[in-house]
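== Polypeptide entry ==
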Amino acid sequence: MRMHLPGRLALLLLIASLTGCLYGFAGGGLPTHIRTVAVMPFDNHTATPELPRELQEALRQGMQSRLGLRDAPEDRASAVVRGTVTRYELDIPVGFSANPNQATSARRRLRVLVDIEIVDQVTGKVLWQKTGVSAEGEYADRGEAEGRKQAIERIVTEIIEGAQSQW
């Protein structure tokens, strides 16, 4: 069976595009030498002592599960993540229900702001940096921890997606 020239060109273009797509997704766009990461404890400029630890742990897990990076001590990691929690605002009112026939309930919102940088320790270059990464979480009365968890998850997603888009 002989293939005509237009058919051959179409087949070659199809093969080239498929291999290009497969190559483009390999390694999540990371430089090939970035295989380990150290997520350092975040500096804390807030009055909430547990926030930096919760953020550090969520970011460490996100980098492992979503980017395939192994956790490593700073002196052996190929990349280092450093950050500062700059603001933690809570009890921002969202909605109230004060129907006299029902119990009063309220929804609240909190906001977390961080500055972050990811440094390639092999080359010394900053791979990604952003100040004022902000996320919000909503919670019911006395449910601040749930709102904080939502905000942290959103921050981790923004950091990972932002970093991937730069590599």
Notes: The two ends are 45 Å apart (CA to CA).
